[in-house]
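Data deposition worksheet. Section B asks for the primary sequence of the deposited chain exactly as it was used as input, without tags or linkers unless they were present during the calculation. Section C holds the resulting structure in C-alpha cell form. Section D is free text for depositor observations; keep each observation to a single sentence. Incomplete worksheets are returned to the depositor.
Section A, Depositor: J.P.
Section B:
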Amino acid sequence: MIDQQQAMLDSLYFLRIPVPERQGEQQVQEEDEEKKEEEKPILCAQCNAIITRPAERIEVQAAHQHTFFNPYGIIFQIGCFRQAPGCRYLGPATEEFSWFPGYSWRIAICKSCLTHLGWLYTAPDKEGFHGLILDCLIQPE
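Section C:
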C-alpha cells in the first residue's frame, strides 16, 4: 500500500511543469520594497502616532519647507502637507498674523497625545493644507 502511494506521488511529481525563474522577478521585488519605503508614515515625535505620509507633501508658495516666526519671536520650520489625518484642531480659524496671505489658520495637534504639531490653513477660494512643525515629526529616511 505504501509503495502504491509513493508511486502515485512520484508520478504526480513528474507531471509538474517546471516554472523557469522570471527575469523581471527581482525588479518587481525591488520596486515593491521601494514602494514600501515610500509608504512609511510620518509620525508624531512625542508619541509615534501616524500623522501623515510622505505622499501628502506639497509645495505652497513654491516650496515644501518654510521658516517663520510668530509674534513672540519663536521660530518654526514647517513642512506643507495636503492632509494630516493624525491631527485634530483647536479654536476658530483666524487670519491674524497668517504666514500665508489669504489663508486663515487653526492650531493642529496630535490626535493621540495632544502635542502642538502646527496649523491647518484654509481659504474660501483655495485648497487648504497643513503646515506642520518639522521638529515635531519623525520622517522616514
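Section D:
The domain at 40-138 is CATH 2.170.150.20 (Metal Binding Protein, Guanine Nucleotide Exchange Factor; Chain A).
The chain has a mean pLDDT of 86.
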